[in-house]
Design a protein that fits this description.
- The chain is mostly helical and 163 residues long.
- The chain folds into two domains: 106 residues, Rossmann fold (3-Layer(aba) Sandwich); 52 residues, no CATH class.
- It is built from seven helices and three strands; from the N terminus they run H-H-H-E-H-E-H-E-H-H.
- It has a three-stranded parallel beta sheet, with no helix packed on it.
- Strand 1, helix 4 and strand 2 form a beta-alpha-beta unit.
- The two termini are 31 Å apart.
- 16% of the residues are buried.
């Protein structure tokens, strides 16, 4: 699904690639481990940044190796619409490795989030995938629909709202 979305969304040659490290590991892996692995595999040819929404800042210290992510990892932060970004950027978890910050009016990525996509699919019972049209590509909508993904609430902890 991610390969499909990247292929449809970005023009040929755009510097966004998909790697199957998580798939080959057989489960979800910590972000710091993933970034370390990418660096080991591709350091000679690529630079990596972790991309996140500003809504994740408050919970970063709970992540595996969160303190190292906050201190060392190259990060691009998209300001999330509807959040008090100035307070988040003053938060003790704000990354300290000179992160790149992108204002919400400069990119729709600050509006779109995986959490929002899952919420819209789950809450729109009549036509579950209608609420994400324009937020994901048509082939991704088709894939989600065929596989009936996100139509039920997830039991996973949502770190966006954890205090």
């Amino acid at each position: 699904m991610v390969r499909m979305a990247v292929k449809e969304f970005f023009p040929p040659g755009f510097p966004v690639k998909v790697d199957d490290i998580e798939v080959s590991q057989g489960n979800s892996i910590p972000t710091a481990f993933l970034m370390d692995e990418l660096q080991v595999r591709h350091a000679a040819t690529h630079r990596f940044h972790f991309i996140m929404g500003s809504d994740l800042i408050k919970g970063l210290h709970w992540w595996d190796d969160g303190d190292r992510i906050i201190r060392e990892m190259p990060i691009i932060i998209f300001r999330r619409k509807g959040y008090d970004n100035e307070a988040l950027f003053a938060h003790e978890n704000f990354p300290r490795n000179d992160p790149i910050v992108v204002d919400e009016e400069k990119s729709l990525i600050g509006v779109i989030s995986s959490t929002e996509i899952r919420r819209r699919v789950c809450e729109n019972h009549m036509v579950p995938y209608c609420g994400i049209a324009g937020l994901v590509t048509p082939n991704v909508i088709d894939y989600l629909s065929r596989n009936r993904l996100y139509i039920r609430p997830s039991d996973q902890i949502d770190l966006h709202t954890a205090e």
